[in-house]
Design goal:
The protein is mainly alpha-helical and 127 residues long. It contains six helices and two strands, in the order αβαβαααα. It has helices at 6-25, 41-46, 59-68, 73-78, 86-93, 98-126; strands at 34-37, 55-58. It has a two-stranded antiparallel sheet with strand order 1-2. α1 crosses α6 (98-126) and α5 (86-93) crosses α6. The longest helix has 29 residues, at 98-126. It is globular.
Length: 127
């Protein structure tokens, strides 16, 4: 087992944020509560050499970060198409080219991760 690449790390972080957000949204926590995003220990064992910084983010801020994304990037993140098969995304959005679909997914992941990083850096200065 080797270390993961940058894209898969971003997918992992976004997946963890969305997992916590969905738990919060589905009533496990208060809808406007804080989300504490930390990696599961079994995932840490699989990602030797990967660095994960704990994130504290409010559920409403996750929503606003998703709203900043243009369509179809927002739908890719909200629908979690980045975790599934590209063919599913192609069928749902009527895209013929696998390359174009993959390019959109990578762009959505990079853009949302960048927004999360900006949020994390700005909230660290405030706290």
């Amino acid at each position: 087992m080797g270390a993961i690449g940058p894209f898969h790390y971003k997918v992992w972080v976004i997946g963890e944020v969305l997992d916590r957000y969905e738990d919060c949204k589905n009533g496990a926590r208060k809808p406007r509560g804080k989300l504490f995003v930390t990696p599961a220990t079994e995932k840490l064992k699989l990602t030797r050499g990967a660095y994960f910084e704990n994130i504290v983010i409010y559920a409403v801020d996750v929503e606003s970060l998703m709203e900043r994304l243009e369509s179809p990037l927002r739908e890719i993140i909200a629908g979690r198409y980045f975790e599934g098969d590209v063919v599913t995304f192609m069928e749902d959005f009527g895209i013929k080219s696998r390359r174009e679909a993959r390019k959109l997914i990578v762009r959505a992941v990079n853009k949302f991760f960048h927004e999360l990083e900006k949020y994390r850096k700005s909230s660290r200065r405030i706290a």
